[in-house]
């Protein structure tokens, strides 16, 4: 497998009309799966690395690892659990969310979704709206969508690891709140699984 060619294929635009335009624009999981099949020659797989169903705390959380040949990326999904009768449905949704989160790190669908996302207005990603043309010389291709967040306490610019940690906190509105790890309130830290917290500590 030529990994570079596979990644280039994953980033290609989808046919017009692929993006579902509802309350929030998205690309169906089946479309992503078909692109993976076509681009990798079926040399891909995924595994659920973590699945936590916690009715007491009111959340379901999943970590999915997506493999392309020997390469892999991890994705995270979480949702609020208020009704135990919805556990099967919400579990599938959270696993799918983690799957798409992993795919996102390969930039699949970026060119199609850029016009609907705030990060698509960033000058460094302007090439995504220009018929999927390559970026200008010297502009790096990002491995993840550019996210700029600052701690509400100390105004420190957050690193991607800190942003990912906030996203892993159940029932935490990371679109409106942001904390560096030092100023993250303890009651939010307690919502994190020991594994995710330890993984963050190991990286930092």
Helix content: 25-40%
Care to count the β-strands? 3
Radius of gyration: 18 Å
Whole-Å distance between the termini? Answer: 33 Å
Mean model confidence by pLDDT:
81
Give the percentage of residues in beta strands.
15-25%
Side-by-side strand order of the widest sheet? 1-2-3
Major sheet characteristics: 3 strands, antiparallel
Identify low-pLDDT runs: 132-146
> Overall 3D geometry?
globular
SSE class: alpha+beta
- The H/E string reads HHEEEHHHHH
Q: What's the tally of helices?
A: 7
Task: Provide a short characterization of the protein structure.
The chain is α+β, with helices and mostly antiparallel strands and 204 residues long. Helices cover 32% and strands 15% of the residues.
Report on the architecture of this protein.
- The two termini are 33 Å apart.
- The chain has a 3-stranded antiparallel β-sheet with strand order 1-2-3.
- The chain is built from 7 helices and 3 strands; from the N terminus they run ααβββααααα.
- With 204 residues, the chain is α+β, with helices and mostly antiparallel strands.
- Helix content is 32%, strand content 15%.
- The chain has helices spanning 3-11, 29-40, 87-104, 110-113, 160-167, 186-189, 194-203; strands at 44-54, 59-68, 71-80.
- Mean pLDDT is 81; it is low at 132-146.
């Amino acid at each position: 497998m030529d990994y570079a060619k596979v990644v280039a294929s994953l980033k290609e635009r989808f046919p017009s009309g692929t993006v579902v335009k509802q309350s929030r624009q998205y690309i169906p999981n089946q479309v992503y799966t078909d692109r993976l099949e076509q681009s990798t020659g079926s040399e891909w797989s995924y595994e659920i690395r973590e699945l936590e169903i916690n009715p007491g705390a009111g959340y379901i959380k999943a970590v999915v690892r997506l493999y392309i040949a020997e390469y892999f990326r991890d994705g995270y999904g979480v949702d609020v659990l208020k009704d135990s009768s919805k556990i099967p449905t919400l579990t599938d949704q959270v696993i799918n969310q983690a799957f798409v989160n992993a795919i996102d790190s390969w930039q699949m669908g970026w060119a199609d979704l850029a016009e609907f996302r705030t990060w698509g207005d960033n000058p460094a990603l302007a090439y995504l709206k220009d018929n999927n043309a390559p970026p200008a010389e010297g502009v790096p291709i990002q491995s993840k969508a550019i996210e700029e967040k600052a701690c509400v306490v100390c105004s420190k610019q957050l690193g991607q690891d800190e942003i990912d940690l906030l996203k892993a906190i159940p029932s935490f509105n990371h679109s409106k709140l942001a904390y560096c790890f030092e100023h993250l309130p303890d009651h939010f830290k307690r919502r994190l699984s020991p594994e995710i917290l330890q993984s963050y500590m190991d990286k930092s």
